[in-house]
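@here heads up, posting the sequence + SMILES for the nicotinamide-adenine-dinucleotide run so it's all in one place. Ping me if the SMILES looks off, I pulled it from an old spreadsheet.
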Amino acid sequence: MNNLLKGKKGIIFGALNEKSIAWKIAEQAVAQGAQIVLTNTPMAARMGGTQDLAKELNTLFIPADATSVEDLENLVEKSMEFFGGKFDFILHSIGMSPNVRKGRTYDDLDYNFLQKTLDVSAISFHKVMQVARKKDAINDWGSIVALSYVAAQRTLYGYNDMADAKALLESIARSFGYILGREKKIRVNTVSQSPTATTAGSGVMGLDHLMDFAERMSPLGNADALDCANYVITLFSDLTRKVTMQNLFHDGGFASMGMSRRAMKLYSKGLDELVQAEESNIDFKDVSQK
Ligand SMILES: NC(=O)c1ccc[n+]([C@@H]2O[C@H](COP(=O)([O-])OP(=O)(O)OC[C@H]3O[C@@H](n4cnc5c(N)ncnc54)[C@H](O)[C@@H]3O)[C@@H](O)[C@H]2O)c1
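bot reply: prediction finished. Complex structure tokens:
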């Protein structure tokens, strides 16, 4: 390993189980020489996964609901005690939509659920930074990263109110990135990751097909959780000190594509089948459900 994070300290939100993107980032951060604190909700604490990782990495787990300013204050204070002072990086890897969970479509949203989606998935990022700033917890030239998705810019069938949450998340990164950059040279970015098979990911409608589509569309193929971890490590390292207020696509090229040869081939095959079916008067629905 290159010890890219030697001497650096940081808080990692969102490692629920081995599939979590934050889990891989925590492992890679420690492998690169960082000291970390892991945090997740009290509910996740009861499930035990995050604590198992804390044991594996020989570090501290502090439960915190990222929507609770009180919990975040406690988290930052305890982390500073553990680190013996300020720290250098924060990973926000948190997302949840009750509308998605309960099957409420975008044209029939429950507005209390929408508030919750925005609070958990986006406003919590503001809360984390506001608490850390008020406690002067982050060293100059520190780095803060949140995970996003291309649905913030482009409409993807079934992503629902999480698209609005991601758009807000990316805006918060720019707005707070200006303040923290101006004052302390701290950078704030979002990483827009490929669809990834995790617990949150599996809530997205038709994840398997979405992943297959993204894989076919991306010249480099989908980025997996480990790829994402490696990229985020560079953002926490001193190699990226002037990158801030950006939404950085980490998606194998997907966000710049319109149509690829691999996707076109599949589409053409499906289309030929459809035309043949129409010619022989087979009901469209029979074919589309194949
Ligand atoms: N999986 C994908 O396809 C994909 C693609 C792009 C971006 N992302 C983003 O990556 C991030 C991590 O998701 P993941 O895919 O690793 O799934 P995951 O389910 O493993 O992680 C989501 C985490 O959010 C935590 N969380 C939920 N509510 C919380 C709260 N109130 N306070 C603190 N933590 C809370 C969960 O406990 C969990 O650890 C999310 O922001 C997600 O939107 C995921």
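MO: The radius of gyration is 21 Å.
MO: One more: Confidence is low (pLDDT under 50) at residues 284-290.
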